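Appendix B. Worked example

We walk through a single record from start to finish. Start with the input: the chain for non-specific serine/threonine protein kinase, Meloidogyne floridensis, length 156.
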Amino acid sequence: MELRVGGRFRLGRKIGSGSFGDIYLGENIASHEEVAIKLECVKTKHPQLHIEAKLYKLMSGGIGIPQVRWCGFEGEYNVMVMELLGPSLEDLFNFCSRKFSLKTVLLLADQMIIDFGLAKRYRDHRSKQHIPYRDHKNLTGTARYASINTHLGVGL
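Next comes the structure step. The output line below is what the pipeline stores for this chain.
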């Protein structure tokens, strides 16, 4: 059975996953454009996908920023369909016989992926002043990739 989201996107194979959901290869049924489709369970305690979609729309037009093609919900999932910018890191790793040279690692590090689903404003939108730091914050995201400040409980 063919799975569709947003009425016009076909869901393909899984190409990634994170702490808040899974990412699939997809296709626009009308134009045959390949897209990335992110799914997040609507029952998630702290939904992040809608925040991520807002940030992508705010940064729209920036270099290396994918265009959001559709955002909404389908069945039991929050869904974001976005432009596919290229192969996944896993696909690149497999293409390179599961070995990256130091040069490749350094080139990738220069443009590593930011989890915009966890992003927060750091300035008050009215006053433009930096939002004060808060102590004793719980860890958000994956401990392995969190900053030292996050581990120490420092947050915006």
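Two observations about the output. The first strand starts at residue 4 and ends at 5. The beta strands are 4-5, 9-17, 22-28, 34-41, 68-74, 77-83.
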